[in-house]
Amino acid sequence: MEKMEENKSKQNNVKRPKGGMIAMPFIFSNEVCEKLAVVGFYANMISYLTTQLHMPLTKAANTLTNFGGTASLTPLLGAFVADAYAGRFWTLTVAFIIYQIAMTSLTLSAIIPQLRPPPCTGEQVCQQATSGQLALLYGSLLLGALGSGGIRPCVAAFGADQFDETDPKQPTKTWKYFNWYYFVMGASILAAVTVIVYIQDNIGWGWGLGIPTISMFLSIIAFVLGYPLYSHMDPVGSPFTRLLQVSVAAFRKRNLTMVSDPNLLYQNEELDASISIDGRLVHSKQMAFLDKAAIVTEEDNVKAPNLWRLNSVHRVEELKSLIRMGPIWASGILLITAYAQQGTFSLQQAKTMDRHLTNSFQIPAGSMSVFTMLAMLSSIALYDRFLIRIARRFTGLDRGITFLHRMGIGFLISVLATLVAGFIEVKRKQAAVAHGLEDKPHSIIPMSVFWLVPQYGLHGIAEAFMSIGHLEFFYDQSPESMRSSATALFWTAISVGNYVSTLLVSLVHKYSAKPDGSNWLPDNNLNKGKLELFYWLITGLQVVNLLYYICCAKLYTYKPIQTPTKDAESEEAASKV
């Protein structure tokens, strides 16, 4: 046994030779350039499709919606490849290159006149893109979706891999990294939706798409240059196969009587060595029916087990950990649903309001999201610099508060955001009525657009708490060999949240329609609608969701892990979870 522990310790040292803060300049340089590229490239893409390729608005919107839906599903594929076969570094490298090809091809269409329709003139109807020009567009968007599938689930997890929580020589922890990661990402997005969009609208699409393309190339260079300094987690086979093996083994042994002592369940540290580098999962009492997969019978060969009949406790607990994460994952969907309204109805509110900063300059309605980003960045900085230190005095936790508490605060602030949005909409409509503009949907109400800043800002603060906590939760609580797959769940929640928003808007629009033509969400005149009731409907749903989350958080059992640095007392406590 001592020899086995010694070999395992040596293996740990081999697996994590580098990493730490020395790798961060390369990873954050990559993140700055990559986010500036991706967001800058697609934030204003609907304008490119309509003004340069002369697509009808509905066709352009559907094209981007389909691209967004595909890009939200491909992370599941990218995560599987990273965890099972290629590892996160090579998955990211290939994904960056694929994305670079996609961006380069679309940039060429903006530079080379033959790759897009001729400009419109006043005397003739605009010529739409040819089938060949559309093929270039769709091919580029598809490559972009494939590239996203490798980048989204791996980039945050790869950065967190550089920190070994059990190494006393690394004072920086993963929770700090996630704060920094989201801050850097937010700052890059802020630059993209302001500077890059301005260049696209006012200087030209050649530069507007070319600068993000060059930025992506620089991000690849920065990422690859750091290769010798990174800590690499090797792929250890398909995690989904292991989950299926545990399920099948538990089903095949469903009629067996459960053992009285959990210590009698099958353990095999040598078998699990490659998937338990950060620590071995120990038995937990929940979902005892899965423990039957670890019951040893006379038919089982313990030295060379058939994994479709017999699995170790560690592998059983991997499946339990993912199942326990499910309810917490589901709780994040409605927050994304609420957040999604900023790009739809909040933007429509802004279009009807006075957006002038000076007599000659007004804020574009689409730029109101800047206030969300500023609030998010300020909240992250305040949280990291001050709030953690204050909370640490009361909780004794190095991270200040747990990620479950952090998520709960985000949920609560999101409730306030939609509640406030409803009251502001009431005031906006009152101003429209007071100035006789309720029947003039295209007229500007003499009410400052800065009245919308509270709802935008509260959404930003909520994201600083909830989204970072959610991402940290997936990374920390997932089995180490499935972290890319678990991080993909973060993006899947965002995707589902947007789809729920679409469904909710469609249902409200359909069932709030009256014979006189009135509607909560009218097609043309927001002044005649009842948007405040829609906001308060979302508020009510979020209150129910918050109560649901509190119950899930109270009942949640942290994954029971026995790390190499734990003492005997800690190990005994973990085994009793």
From TrEMBL:
SUPFAM superfamilies: MFS general substrate transporter. GO terms for molecular function: transmembrane transporter activity. Gene3D superfamilies: MFS general substrate transporter like domains. The chain crosses the membrane at residues 21-43, 63-82, 89-115, 135-159, 180-199, 205-230, 322-341, 361-383, 403-424, 444-468, 489-513, 533-551. It is a multi-pass membrane protein. Keywords: Membrane, Transmembrane, Transmembrane helix. It comes from the Eukaryota. One of its GO terms (cellular component) is membrane. It is found in: Membrane. Its main location: membrane. It holds the Pfam family PTR2. InterPro entries: MFS_trans_sf, POT_fam. Belongs to the major facilitator superfamily. Proton-dependent oligopeptide transporter (POT/PTR) (TC 2.A.17) family. This is Major facilitator superfamily (MFS) profile domain-containing protein. It comes from Gossypium darwinii.
